[in-house]
Amino acid sequence: MVRYSKGAFRELVRDYDVDIAYTPMILADVFKSSAFARQDYTTNNSDCPVVVQFAAHNPTDFAQAAELVAPYADGIDLNCGCPQKWAYKECIGAYLSERPEAVQDMLHAIKSAVNIPCSIKIRKHPSDMRKTVELVRRAEKMGVDWITVHGRTRHQKSTEPVDYEAIRLVKESVSIPVLANGGIFSISDADTMYYKTAVNGVMSARGLLQNPALFAGYAQTPLTSVEKYVNLALAYGTPFFILHHHLIFMLESVMSSVERKTFNCLSSTPAILDHLLFYYGIKCTL
Ligand SMILES: Cc1cc2nc3c(=O)[nH]c(=O)nc-3n(C[C@H](O)[C@H](O)[C@H](O)COP(=O)(O)O)c2cc1C
């Protein structure tokens, strides 16, 4: 998740039964050409398995970026799902979910460039599921190791229900593992997804931001996970605004509206630590 699924958060969710963690989407052209941009991705021995996700609009950028990162990654994913207008204009993200040939070319390039597992993360086609089926079949032929499908179109809001039928169709159209994404906020949501689509796994985004312990069966963020996250974030040198945003998500279900107003206005890491000590007895030191 852009801005969020960095090292500290990946380490946190692994403690709560997440099997595979992805990096935020990284622009392949910037990554391959800028040593400075490459510093934004760091990993370590416990960050495993980690999938590095790239956004790319041509095979060369994608393959070169993947080649650079492959020694430090367990898998490479091509983002074919980002719905933002700027991304569509740049011919990346969800633009690719409507362009099976372009995806095929990029997968051909990456399969020749690296020798680690590769995947794509797609959205359902806005109007014609036959195009989605064509896309996933081509991807399978090109040798991707799994496919993640978000059961909403790029035009849909994340509050709209996911299309289980579309996800099931993707699952039935290929023989490789399929992961389902969209609307997983609890173990019971994951069970419903398995039941309705027969997929091989599920991926959660907003659910995990709100409750990093969801796959371990917690109904809401345990305070121990807040403490763990803050200690990890401090150890990783996480910038204030990322720490702050994560805690706003994690504490959403716990904070009263009055407390939330105070918390949202905090402007430094020491102020956050004071707040956590005062309201929750959570002791973390810089
Ligand atoms: C803050 C945020 C950042 C996201 N960043 C990415 C990203 O970098 N790559 C990606 O494939 N999807 C990204 N997404 C989309 C999610 O992966 C997911 O497809 C979408 O939120 C639906 O899943 P959910 O209902 O579990 O949230 C992001 C979503 C959110 C809320």
From TrEMBL:
<feature type="active site" description="Proton donor">
    <location>
        <position position="82"/>
    </location>
</feature>
<feature type="binding site">
    <location>
        <position position="53"/>
    </location>
    <ligand>
        <name>FMN</name>
    </ligand>
</feature>
<keyword id="KW-0288">FMN</keyword>
<dbReference type="GO" id="GO:0050660">
    <property type="term" value="F:flavin adenine dinucleotide binding"/>
</dbReference>
<keyword id="KW-0547">Nucleotide-binding</keyword>
<keyword id="KW-0521">NADP</keyword>
<dbReference type="InterPro" id="IPR035587">
    <property type="entry name" value="DUS-like_FMN-bd"/>
</dbReference>
<comment type="similarity">
    <text>Belongs to the dus family.</text>
</comment>
<feature type="binding site">
    <location>
        <begin position="181"/>
        <end position="183"/>
    </location>
    <ligand>
        <name>FMN</name>
    </ligand>
</feature>
<feature type="binding site">
    <location>
        <position position="150"/>
    </location>
    <ligand>
        <name>FMN</name>
    </ligand>
</feature>
<dbReference type="GO" id="GO:0006397">
    <property type="term" value="P:mRNA processing"/>
</dbReference>
<protein>
    <recommendedName>
        <fullName>tRNA-dihydrouridine synthase</fullName>
        <ecNumber>1.3.1.-</ecNumber>
    </recommendedName>
</protein>
<feature type="domain" description="DUS-like FMN-binding">
    <location>
        <begin position="1"/>
        <end position="228"/>
    </location>
</feature>
<dbReference type="GO" id="GO:0106414">
    <property type="term" value="F:mRNA dihydrouridine synthase activity"/>
</dbReference>
<dbReference type="InterPro" id="IPR018517">
    <property type="entry name" value="tRNA_hU_synthase_CS"/>
</dbReference>
<keyword id="KW-0520">NAD</keyword>
<keyword id="KW-0507">mRNA processing</keyword>
<feature type="binding site">
    <location>
        <begin position="205"/>
        <end position="206"/>
    </location>
    <ligand>
        <name>FMN</name>
    </ligand>
</feature>
<dbReference type="Pfam" id="PF01207">
    <property type="entry name" value="Dus"/>
</dbReference>
<dbReference type="GO" id="GO:0102267">
    <property type="term" value="F:tRNA-dihydrouridine20b synthase activity"/>
</dbReference>
<keyword id="KW-0560">Oxidoreductase</keyword>
<comment type="similarity">
    <text>Belongs to the Dus family. Dus4 subfamily.</text>
</comment>
<dbReference type="InterPro" id="IPR013785">
    <property type="entry name" value="Aldolase_TIM"/>
</dbReference>
<dbReference type="GO" id="GO:0102266">
    <property type="term" value="F:tRNA-dihydrouridine20a synthase activity"/>
</dbReference>
<feature type="binding site">
    <location>
        <position position="121"/>
    </location>
    <ligand>
        <name>FMN</name>
    </ligand>
</feature>
<keyword id="KW-0285">Flavoprotein</keyword>
<comment type="function">
    <text>Catalyzes the synthesis of dihydrouridine, a modified base found in the D-loop of most tRNAs.</text>
</comment>
<keyword id="KW-0819">tRNA processing</keyword>
<dbReference type="InterPro" id="IPR001269">
    <property type="entry name" value="DUS_fam"/>
</dbReference>
